[in-house]
Specification:
This protein has 594 residues and is mainly β. It contains 5 helices and 39 strands. The chain is elongated. The termini are far apart.
Length: 594
């Protein structure tokens, strides 16, 4: 089995680099922070137990392999990871099965410069051991790094789904559990499939979206759970027309606006929520006859301002002979961005102005083999001219079976990350020895002249920048805000602030540096003249004149300090010097040559 991690930008691929090799990697989860530090947290399980690492992408892209830490031995069912926006606090959450498969244990490991001890958060009953895999599990780490929200849906009784949220504080080993849906007395149940479950977050705000179905199967409801920090707010509900098969969500980075896209198979509808108030729903796309919608994703695509709430939907449509990727804007305009062969693996990730799409090609429908993996990275303005490039080069002699792809985007540095898991196949299409390799490849968008996001969360114009223009930079250049903490100033100093980027001086100083000054700054001579004028001449005049006026009672020009020198001695000496020089020149004109 092969597990690969790649970060993408415009079209330049560095790698892939082999990071670590293990046997039988069954589960992988990758999270990338949206900060300037670029820390990557990864966790995976194999036949020996659970492993993970945290490393800087700048180091990984050079091919220097990290050393994974083994958290525990034995079988692990499911795993998910998360890291806060500034990249200094991470969480590995995983589940193990006990009591013959009837009980599932949720456990947590925190990373703050190093991995802490394993902590068991809760034990809960499940329908089967398979239900303990909780493939829907999402981890959202708070900006201050002190707490996290862990959410997932699972089968707990008769195949019915339950949605839960845990607010955990690893330092004190305390947690609060909320059963969001649905209790035995409830007239509805949740669909535990991962396509019916979505989590999005920004700052201290998290939203959990899921589909609840009535017990008589007569109607479906899109439920939006809203968390501010660890405080749960009143949920918002949308009655769905028909049965929604897939949903996705996004939350605006500078406001409490949330958008959802739900697919019913042939139609995609966007639902909007503002500060816990239900707004409206909008039908954005209807598939042509014979086509079916898959893998919808949604994100805000505006300039990053609080008032620009433009969103973008990317979805896949398929029929029996073809596959297309469609992009739709909040204005209602939709376009087909490209068309590929059917049965391709497909996943997309969006963050700010970025869209990442990954798929496999050369698929053998009979054996399930995939010979290659491709990726596309683009800004929203360039979606009509996508240019796929190979992530995993085509190799029909050693194809992969059962490729599983995960993807995420990093807004601040205009890059994306993809993790893919696959098992090598032999000539008959069966699996060979399950030896797995974790690969990492790095690609970042690079413009000859453009904008980059500074540690002060300002768009700075310079060469070799990730953003092509100020608008795309503004939509990706955002970060957390703490009531009491430290802010990185333009000259690279960490100062205390009521609305800060970092919770402590230590975290601020690790990434804070000065913004380069523009080319029209003052020269050394200009600085000397300013110091001479304002540091010497002005004080000399003010102090001297004040003394003459108030002490000597001087008037007129006599108020100037050293009046006789400036108004008599100095002018007389200057006139005498001129007469001397001019007189010598005139005398020289009367000399005769010998």
């Amino acid at each position: 089995m092969c597990v690969c991690v790649c970060v993408f930008g415009r079209e330049t691929l560095n790698g892939p680099f082999p990071i670590v090799t293990h046997t039988q990697i069954d589960t992988g989860s990758i999270a990338l922070d949206s900060s300037h530090t670029g820390n990557l947290i990864a966790a995976f399980e194999n036949s020996d137990g659970l492993f993970g690492f945290v490393n800087d992408i700048a180091i990984l892209k050079t091919g220097i392999a990290p050393t994974p830490v083994q958290f525990l031995e034995g079988e692990v069912e499911g795993v998910s990871v998360g890291i806060n926006t500034e990249g200094f606090s991470g969480i590995v959450a995983f589940t193990t099965s006990s009591k013959g498969g009837s009980t599932c244990d949720l456990q947590v490991i925190q990373w703050i410069g190093g991995f802490e001890d394993v902590w068991t958060v809760d034990s809960f009953a499940v329908e089967s051991k398979e239900a303990c895999k909780v493939k829907t599990m999402k981890v959202v780490v708070a900006d201050d790094g002190r707490s996290a929200l862990i959410t997932f849906a699972y089968e707990y009784e008769g195949g019915h789904g339950r949605v839960v949220a845990y607010s955990v504080t690893p330092a004190s080993k305390t947690s609060t559990k909320d059963v969001l849906c649905c209790n035995q007395a409830s007239s509805s149940f949740a669909l535990a499939d991962m396509t019916h479950f979505s989590v999005s977050s920004t700052g201290t705000i998290s939203t959990i979206a899921y589909i609840a179905t009535s017990s008589d199967l007569s109607h479906n409801t899109l439920v939006t759970e809203y968390y501010e920090g660890t405080d749960r707010r009143t949920p918002i509900e949308f009655e769905l027309q028909g049965s929604a098969e897939e949903i996705a969500s996004a939350i605006h980075p500078n406001s409490k606006n949330v958008v959802f896209v739900g697919s019913t198979g042939t139609q995609a509808t966007v639902y909007e929520v503002e500060s816990q108030s239900r707004l409206e729903s909008q039908l954005v796309y209807t598939a042509p006859q014979g086509w079916v919608i898959h893998h919808p994703s949604i994100d805000f695509s505006g300039d990053g301002s609080t008032f620009d709430l433009s969103w973008r939907v990317v979805l896949q449509i398929r029929n029996l002979t073809s596959q297309r990727v469609v992009s739709c804007q909040s204005s209602g305009a939709c376009e087909v961005v490209w068309e590929q062969s059917p049965n391709d693996v497909y996943v997309s990730a969006q963050a700010g102005p970025l869209t990442s799409i990954f798929f496999s090609k050369d698929v053998d429908n009979n054996s399930g083999r995939a010979a290659s993996l491709y990726g596309v990275f683009s800004f929203s303005s360039h979606l009509s001219a996508l240019n796929p490039f190979a992530v995993l080069p085509s190799s029909k002699s050693s194809p992969l079976c059962g490729i599983n792809v995960q993807a995420a985007s990093q807004a601040n540095t205009a890059s994306s990350i993809v993790a893919y898991i696959g098992t090598p196949c032999n000539a008959m299409g069966g699996a060979t020895l399950p030896v797995s390799t974790l690969y990492f490849a790095y690609v970042i968008n690079e413009e000859e002249t453009g904008y980059s996001c500074s540690p002060q969360l300002q768009c700075v114009k310079n060469t070799s920048s990730p953003f092509p223009n100020e608008g795309s930079c503004a939509s990706g250049c955002f970060g957390p805000s703490f009531q009491n903490g430290y802010t990185c100033t333009t000259n690279g100093q960490c100062v205390a602030s009521n609305s800060a980027q970092f919770p402590t001086m230590e975290f601020c100083s690790d990434v804070c540096y000065a913004i380069p000054t523009a080319s029209n700054t003052l020269s050394g001579g200009s600085v000397f003249l300013l110091v001479l004028i304002f540091g010497c001449i002005f004080p000399y005049l003010i102090i001297g004149m004040s003394y003459n006026i108030f002490v000597k009672k001087a008037q007129g020009t006599e108020i100037f300090p050293n009046h006789d020198f400036w108004f008599s001695t100095l002018p007389h000496n200057i006139r005498a010097g001129f007469r001397c020089v001019i007189g010598r020149r005139r005398a020289g004109d009367q000399y005769e040559s010998i």
